[in-house]
Predict the 3D structure of the following.
Amino acid sequence: MKLAFSDLAAAVGGTLRNVSGNGFVSCVSTDSRKEIPNGLFFAIPGERFDGHDFLTAALKNGAVLLCVEEESLHKLPLGAPALVVKSTQQAYLDAAKFYRNTFPELKVVALSGSSGKTSTKEMLRSIFAEVYGEEHVLATEGNTNNQIGVPYNLFRLNENHKIAVIETGTNHFGEIQPLARTIQPDAAVIVSIGRCHLENLLSLEGVAAEKSDLFRSLKTGGTAVIPAGCPQNPILAKAADPCNVVTAGEEDGDVFSIYLGGNIDGSAFLLKDTRSGEVAKVDWYLSGAHQASNAALAAAVAKSFGIPLKTIAKGLENCSLPGLRMKKSVHLGATWINDAYNANPDSMRATLTWLSEFAVPTKVLPVLGDMLETGENASRVHKEILEYALELFPEDKILAVGPLMTAAAQELSSERIVSFPDSETCAEKIADHIIPEGIVFLKASRGTHLEKVEPQ
């Protein structure tokens, strides 16, 4: 990276102070604790900390330029080199957009969704690694998909990258649009519209309206991929106009999957493209019809770049998921499946359905935690999930963890549901419920910290 002070000032609409425009920066950061040799530090105000309070630390760690807000100029160390702007958050986005556009040959994919977006991102990473080579693919790290994370990932770009896959997240209206404008994708996919973040987005239509902003910044001639059969698709397709719209996932999509079944170690499915007539079989390490559907969405994106379906299938066969997503381990004589990274009613139902495919009756222990940000429907959807679990696993106990799940369990009053107020309490008692040679399945929103239940 080599960005001139003058170019940065022009890109973000700022003014330089205590420095000429001839200098340049070699890296960018919002964290004053990290080494940033010859770097640019963006002092961004947050809920808990204000970056303007750490300007001296940033200089000590190598910053040669400080991006600061006009209102906080009084915090600038005497004589320190500064790029002065109205909003450092907006300047961070604008600078990332400018940097992204210094790679004119780069192709960029943006994605979002109520559930499945990280899985789909990893599928796209695997497909593109098969085509371009792993070192030529950049993909979002971890859950860095917000106003800070998206620019962070774009600033990771270098001249070796041929394609980037950037994940975007939202839980309030107006958050996707600035991210999409920063990314300027060549293709974009909305993986799902589900009952997530309803406390702020209010309804499924609200979720669709917010996420549809991802399509409004597509480059001319770009492709928008939407989930086939989704009732909110008219909202998504309208936002994508006049770009190409491709449906994928379900059997009435342009690209769809036919799930052939699986188990804890993997599964198989067919990929079909109704437009070209191509068919390819995929045997991979993931399981569940919902993941096969996500794969069809990823395949539709890859097809928009001219990649043959058989090559896509080969890439998918190398896909694995990071972190607390279907992480398998063995404790106390049982197999544990930890999918406690995130949850909403739709993803919870999908993974329980998958588990029921192969779980031996009397040998499975679903441990289900609170699903957060489900809005005014919280009581109803938690009750629905527990009822669904009771139906799928009629001979097994179910552990309900957290205040929302506990309240739903009390309402159902089933002897097969054991409830715990929090993950710590459940962890203390989990050994009493382990089935030898059975399966323990953990699923909850990240804020429930259900990973604490699993022995370390």
About this structure: Residues 3-91 form a domain with the Udp-n-acetylmuramoylalanyl-d-glutamate--2,6- Diaminopimelate Ligase; Chain: A, domain 1 fold (CATH 3.40.1390.10). The chain has a mean pLDDT of 92.
